[in-house]
């Protein structure tokens, strides 16, 4: 009988299996790390460019929104469509030192007047069931026409809102996004009007 044909080997039977397990473990670890890295990068991209969570910090939108409520913000749609009257927007630009949540009440080309405590747009008194209090001019010269590339915003709590009546129209480039959904409190969970 040949000395090497007896099935005996100089190799330890456990060594190749252990090396194979280590190799599979490393491969799986690399795959998990890659998957986790892609997930983190995707979530950061989505939060920066598509959808984010925002918190209401003041009373200017009462009774529609109150301080402490958490909202979902759509950051993507204004890259493709213009804002429209009634949109609740998040403003992050030179118009204010703070990020603001306000409602678009007029778009480029609209002429604004305020009569008897009501907003008049292009000669038509507006029905604004969301507005709280009287709408006052706060020193702005009327009538006022919104320039191209801008929107005019007001808080729904008209007597307690710093808005376009004070700081002027908001550039479209200052609109961070549109508030579309209320997450918190759970009792008011749902889409925004």
UniProtKB/TrEMBL annotation:
It catalyses: Cleavage of hydrophobic, N-terminal signal or leader sequences from secreted and periplasmic proteins. It is an enzyme of class 3 (hydrolase). Its EC number is 3.4.21.89. Keywords: Hydrolase, Protease. Pfam families: Peptidase_S26. The keyword Repeat does not apply. Residues 1-22 are annotated as: Disordered. It is a single-pass type II membrane protein. It is found in: Cell membrane; Membrane. Residues 30-184 form the Peptidase S26 domain. PANTHER family: CHLOROPLAST PROCESSING PEPTIDASE, SIGNAL PEPTIDASE I. Belongs to the peptidase S26 family. This is Signal peptidase I. It comes from Paenibacillus cisolokensis.
